[in-house]
Amino acid sequence: MLDISPRGAITRSADRLDPPPAAWRREAAAGEVSLERHNALRDAADCLNTLRVNQPPAPAQAPQQLRIAAWNLERCRHVGESARLLKRAGADICLLSEMDLGMARSGNRDTAAELAAALDMGHAYGVEFIELDHGDAREAAAHGETPNAAGLHGNAIASRFAIDRAAMLPLDNGGLWFAGDAKGRQRRIGGRMALAVRHLLPQPLWVVAVHFESRMDPLDRDREARVLLSHVGALCGDEAVLLGGDFNCKSIKENGLLGEQVLKTPQDTEPMFSRLAEAGFDWWHSNSPGVTTRRHPWQDPAEPRRKLDWFFSRGLTCHDPRVVAAADRSQGNLSDHELILVSVDL
Asked: What are the DSSP calls for 125-180, one per residue?
């Protein structure tokens, strides 16, 4: 079970992150496997306790309407094509998850910084995990001979607008991928988190990139939602908030909800929706019912496509939600998740 006893919000920021050196990562991977050791390693790693904030080169003025994207970019292996898709979508703010920094599987690139630069945006980046391996079994087979330059993986928010404040919001206490699955690959230090940014447009608007744990069940996701809402309440007060990202709510498909029913009654299978509704968050106007995952050619064609990616809004007028195919110009997959979009009136 996920240890839902997270730390408080992390607000310390810098314009660069210092990843732990390769020798530190090797020692972390080779030592004792326990939650106590994981927590000591987590607390000692500066990059897990600091977020990077870079302002846009030329901050934009607030328009009357924003177009906001949320996208799980699955390591962001295709920076250029992903930037082109976000530009075509007209995104002003991008809520991004699964962004690598110095991982061999994504070319040892700083994907968040490069993507933001390609979009002429600033960005905030927070580290979810220090990766001690090369990823899943397929990634390890393909890239295991190439060292990870930094071994970081996290969430980002790219934006055309000046960043007033930023924070990382831990959603659990971490350790599941270190001590909870010690015999498997993809050993990691860290835990799931959300990344929050405040813009003044001129009224305050908080946008929050969310990534819930993938190995959990609906009750665990409800606990994560409770933690997220506690952070949001303390950080954002009664200011307007848009949550967006990969909530990993797999039971919607598993319990047979289809079409408009996905929007009408998701709380029947995922109690997190009831918790968010009780906190004043709406999903009906900011989401379309379409599925948001894609299959790679090497995956089982019988694997169902799911609606895992959502927006939740409070104090905002949202409309025109869309799901955009995460494909490049030759129809190759950019990610195993589609891009979702919504318009927000200011």
From this structure: EEEEEEESSSSSHHHHHHHTTSPPSS-EEEEEEEESS---EEEEEE-S---TTTTT
| 226 phi-psi bin (left φ>0, alpha ψ -120 to 50, beta other) | alpha
In angstroms, the Cα distances linking 273 to 57, 90, 226, 297 are: 38, 28, 11, 32
The reported pTM is 0.96
Distance CA 138, CA 300 (A): 14
Edge to edge, the sheet with strand 309-314 lists: 165-170, 193-200, 204-211, 240-246, 309-314
- CA separation (Å) from 263 to 120, 126, 314? 34, 30, 17
**Could you give the CA distance from residue 81 to residue 242 in angstroms, rounded to a whole number?**
26
Instruction: Report pLDDT digits (tens) over 39-56.
Output: 999 999 999 999 999 999
CB 232 within 8 A of CB 241: yes
The DSSP element (H or E) to which 211 belongs, if any, is: strand 204-211
